[in-house]
Every structure is written in structure tokens, then in C-alpha cells.
Amino acid sequence: HPTGIDIANEANGRLKTPQDADWYEIDLGTNSFGQGVAVSPIQMMTAASALANDGKMAYPHVLYGMVSNGHQYNTPAQTLGTPISPQSARTTSEMLAIALENGESAALVEGYRIAGKTGTAQIPGPDGYYDPEKTHASFIGWGPVDDPKFLVYVWLEKPESSGWASYVAAPAFHDVVEKLVVLLNIPPDNIRRQLTGQ
Question: For 26-196, CATH number?
């Protein structure tokens, strides 16, 4: 479904259901790991926001705020609902963070615990079969895990150097977040813990 973001012409995603005319029994299995599912980048970020935000799915905005007659009016934070429990969101975030740390992911940013996931999507050709040579690569992540301040989604269309997200999208995420924590003035985890007495 569209997220309702404050820009026009948001596209619908695609998730086959048993009510669809083109549904096959195998679609149940392939849906479970994302094969044949299509979402826009903003839909992906909106869904992942529930994991980063204790189960609350954020309503996305392009407009942060506006200034009128010398006064700033910020767009208030809103949620679209709570599709998962806070405990499920925290557990999933922790599992994703551990998987990145144990896998020595290129997405990791020194001093910050990050939760995230790669995505490598095959691309169907005009004949309906997947092209073995081309993919879309992505990485979505948020952090710091214990108190998320950002969520970043990197999506690369048909990357040439490698089709695997762990080789192309994860390093791009790292480069963005390494600069983002400076721009947003987010202290490293150990400093934040000292400041909060944890």
C-alpha cells in the first residue's frame, strides 16, 4: 500500500495474495523471502521504521518544516500504526546487529552499533525469467541500536562492480552513515552511555 507520504504519485507495491488471478501455490513460499515482492524505497523505509522505533511505523515526510514570518513550523512526528510489538522490534534489531557484527559487515561504522540487512534482488526480463547477470542491491539500516536516531536505505540499480549488496550497498551505507553521525551530532555509543550514566 502507499505510505501517504507528502508528495504526489506514490506507486503501489506488489505482494501477491491467494485472491490474485496470477497466484500460484509457490508464491506463498517465494513471498516469504521477498521473491516477486515489489516495494518503493519509501515503502521499504516505512516498514523498517517499525523495527527501529519499538514497533511503531513512522509516517514518512519529505517536508521537515517551514519558516513563515520568522517562525519555524516543524512537521509533527506521526505513526501509521504498530504492526509488531516493542519486544519483537527490539529482538529483531538486536539479531540484525549481531549478524552484522559477526559477519564483519562493510556497513559497520566504528563507535556505533548498527542494525541492518542487505538485499540482493533478481530482475525479471521481458520473457518473465530472471536475468542471471543483473540484480538490484540494497542495504537498510538504523542506529544507534539502543536509541535509533537515523534510518538509511541505499538502493543501487544494476550495480556493475558486483551484483551482491554486501559488496556494493553495505559500503555505500557505511560511507553515508559515517558522515551522517557527524552532521546530526550523534555521539559514539560509549560517549552516549557516559552521558546518560549507563
Answer: 3.40.710.10
